[in-house]
Amino acid sequence: MMTNKDNIKIVATNRRARHDYHILDTLEAGLVLTGTEVKSVRAGKASLADAYVGFERGEAFVYNMFINPYEKGNRFNHAEKRPRKLLLHRREIDWLTGLVSQKGFTLIPLKLYFKGCHAKLEIALAKGKKAYDKREDAKDREVKREIDRALKEKRSMP
Description:
Elements: E1 8-13, H1 17-20, E2 21-31, H2 35-42, E3 46-47, E4 52-56, E5 59-63, E6 66-67, E7 84-87, H3 90-100, E8 105-115, E9 118-128, H4 131-156
Antiparallel strand pairs: 1-8, 2-7, 2-9, 3-6, 4-5, 5-7, 8-9
């Protein structure tokens, strides 16, 4: 029986990321998980709310990613917010380290998903938004919403 390798199941998304940051570039990274973490993530018990990506000893880690302990796990259950290693190529790590060292850039996770049987994390190179940027985005959304509403009313009239 053949399986589709591109079968993607999204587990968690970081919805605040696009509100708080300007997303400049995205990248897919593998994730090193223990057995009970994989079972818990497959059950949808993960959150990316306060998570961020950092570098330690030339390796990339995701910090503050919450994975609920597996309910049928025993004493070998995992810690909820432990640092988890990201699987990236050396040139990607060097490139990201150079960019993050510049003022204002950060790496944030956007999506946690399974691609086939492998856990993946979509990370984004981002720059923080100022308060006036957020107000401007809200204003643009409101204008677009009113235009769509007016067009819908125009189409529904006989």
